[in-house]
């Protein structure tokens, strides 16, 4: 099946972001994409100072439009961090998934909040405004099971391992790595998660805007279960297409059967209920 990653140029105008995002989703569908993903924070600038201003409830303006375009195009649509979600007086970094009938299939709240301090380069603290999610998020399609994470979630291999244990063959991470962490770790982490768990990993970023207060690295990427980069964008707004070959995944798992050779008598990673 064909996967499309929409590397959107995000402006300060929510309505404009939504309009252009939906237009690119329609374009991707017309080119045969069955699963389409939008980047983290696609409907607002990325920054703690913006989260409260742009926050919505679910359902709300942004998710209603995503539901409508998913149904119109008969696709599975991953809404990036579609919105800062407001719920019960708290804000969450939330990714929604809609099916071909427009129904909400999954809602992933970012589990690991991005609180970092790299002296002289970048300091950022999502926990100043956001609360963490407390659950894994998976959804089924006729093609395969898909696991979701958001940006910083990609740094935690236990999360990806559990998704693999639960039968996911594709992991999708809407993300917005910056100009410090992007060139250092963006591709490296995706390749690590893919080869460790013998599955496909896709990470979709906003396009780079040098004038923004937070400058995204871009380079939306798809990695196969062998750890090879099979599709990659540059920094500009674009749509990345790739065909996901589940037969190749099965062959790799047969050739190097790490999943059946794990020493569960010595170690293990488990999901807590």
Describe it.
This protein has 273 residues and is α/β, with parallel strands linked by helices. It has a single domain (2-258), classed as Nitrilase/N-carbamoyl-D-aminoacid amidohydrolase. The protein is 28% helix and 27% strand. The chain contains 7 helices and 15 strands. The strands form 3 sheets. Strands 1, 2, 3, 4, 5, 6 and 15 form a 7-stranded mixed sheet that branches. α1 (14-30) packs parallel to α3 and α4 (157-165) packs parallel to α5 (181-197). The two termini are 32 Å apart. The mean pLDDT is 94. It catalyses: 2-oxoglutaramate + H2O = 2-oxoglutarate + NH4(+); 2-oxosuccinamate + H2O = oxaloacetate + NH4(+). One of its GO terms (cellular component) is mitochondrion.
Assign the CATH class.
Answer: Alpha Beta
Total E-strand runs: 15
| Unreliable runs | none
Largest sheet: number of strands, sense, barrel closure: 7 strands, mixed
CATH architecture: 4-Layer Sandwich
- Could you say what the CATH topology is called? Nitrilase/N-carbamoyl-D-aminoacid amidohydrolase
Approximate helicity band: 25-40%
């Amino acid at each position: 099946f064909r996967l499309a990653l929409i590397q959107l140029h995000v402006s300060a105008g929510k309505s404009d972001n939504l309009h252009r995002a939906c237009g690119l989703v329609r374009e991707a569908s017309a080119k045969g994409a069955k699963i389409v993903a939008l980047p983290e924070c696609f409907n607002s600038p990325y920054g703690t100072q913006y989260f409260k201003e742009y926050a919505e409830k679910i359902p709300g303006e942004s998710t209603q439009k995503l539901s409508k375009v998913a149904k119109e195009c008969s696709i599975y649509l991953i809404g990036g961090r579609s919105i800062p979600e407001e719920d019960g007086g708290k804000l969450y970094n939330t990714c929604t998934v809609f099916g071909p009938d427009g129904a909400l299939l999954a809602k992933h709240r970012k589990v690991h909040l991005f609180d970092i301090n790299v002296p002289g380069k970048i300091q950022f603290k999502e926990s100043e405004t956001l609360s963490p999610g407390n659950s894994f998020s998976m959804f089924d399609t006729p093609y395969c099971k898909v696991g979701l994470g958001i940006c910083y979630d990609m740094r935690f291999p236990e999360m990806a391992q559990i998704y693999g244990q639960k039968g996911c063959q594709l992991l999708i991470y809407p993300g917005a790595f910056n100009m410090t962490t992007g060139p250092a770790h963006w591709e490296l982490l995706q390749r690590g998660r893919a080869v460790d768990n013998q599955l496909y990993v896709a990470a979709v970023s906003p396009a780079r805007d040098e004038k923004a207060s937070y400058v995204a690295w871009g380079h939306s990427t798809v990695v196969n279960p062998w750890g090879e980069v099979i599709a990659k964008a540059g920094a500009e707004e674009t749509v990345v297409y790739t065909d996901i070959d589940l037969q190749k995944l099965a062959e790799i798992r047969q050739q190097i059967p790490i999943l059946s050779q794990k020493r569960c008598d010595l170690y293990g990673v488990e999901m807590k209920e």
